[in-house]
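Quick one:
INPUT:
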């Protein structure tokens, strides 16, 4: 399976419309990949709170339309990062978008864990409620966003629902980059999954970004890692290694706590 993680630089001097056009070109250049993944809130920047209401859009808005088109143009499965979604009742959500190679919106995921404590995303946005998996033809994907990475119970739920490759789309700050790498490897090891974690580069809203997008195998080994600047990180991996790892070292069978009731599993 070939995945392309596009680590986008979010420059506040670049308009959102210009960035959409540039990102569309970057995705189109990855034709032939089995999966392309973009970072969290790349149209606005994850810390540009003052732009959230201004740039919010519905699920048929300009970013969604552009990403649907480029997924079809490139004939790729596209995790298009996330956008600020506004709903009919005025609530904003940090919503991830996944498109099929036909350009159809295959899944959406509203971020469950909002960052900011008593400010920013935590007070400006509503919380999602449902974990989301996507039936990619080669590997079931578990969809997560940034701050979610700190909450292992979400990933256990995704594993219970069949996830084999965990996606983390993020706008992670540089000052906590060590946590980014550590947690990506931990989520891979404890769940015996591949982890594809893609962040942003540059500085937006005064917050330097970590970059260092990373791909990790089910044993926690780093398959590929980006640097600090804008970059396309390409990685090839064998999804069948998930089942092989779980058979070779069947730790998940020894779980005692937190198991979902059979009726809740999908």
């Amino acid at each position: 399976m070939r995945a392309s993680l596009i680590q986008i630089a979010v420059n506040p001097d670049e308009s959102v419309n210009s960035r959409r056009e540039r990102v569309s070109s970057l995705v189109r250049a990855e034709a032939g990949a089995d999966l392309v993944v973009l970072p969290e809130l790349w149209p606005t920047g994850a810390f540009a709170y003052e732009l959230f209401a201004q740039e919010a859009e519905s699920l048929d808005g300009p970013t969604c339309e552009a990403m649907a088109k480029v997924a079809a143009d490139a004939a790729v499965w596209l995790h298009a990062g996330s956008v600020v979604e506004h709903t009919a009742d005025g609530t904003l959500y940090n919503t991830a978008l996944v498109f099929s190679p036909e350009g159809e919106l295959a899944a959406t995921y509203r971020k469950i864990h909002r960052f900011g404590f008593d400010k920013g995303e935590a007070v400006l946005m509503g919380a999602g409620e449902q974990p989301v998996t996507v039936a990619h033809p080669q590997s079931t994907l578990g969809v997560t966003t940034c701050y979610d990475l700190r909450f292992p119970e979400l990933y256990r739920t995704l594993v219970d629902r069949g996830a084999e490759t965990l996606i983390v789309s993020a706008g992670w700050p540089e000052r906590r980059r060590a946590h980014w790498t550590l947690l990506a490897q931990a989520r891979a090891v404890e769940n015996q999954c591949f982890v594809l974690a893609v962040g942003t580069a540059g500085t937006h809203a005064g917050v330097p970004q970590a970059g260092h997008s990373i791909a990790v195998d089910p044993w926690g080994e780093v398959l590929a890692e980006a640097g600090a600047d804008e970059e396309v990180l390409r990685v090839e991996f064998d999804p069948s290694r998930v089942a092989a790892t779980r058979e070779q070292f069947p730790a998940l069978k020894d779980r005692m706590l937190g198991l979902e009731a059979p009726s809740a599993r999908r």
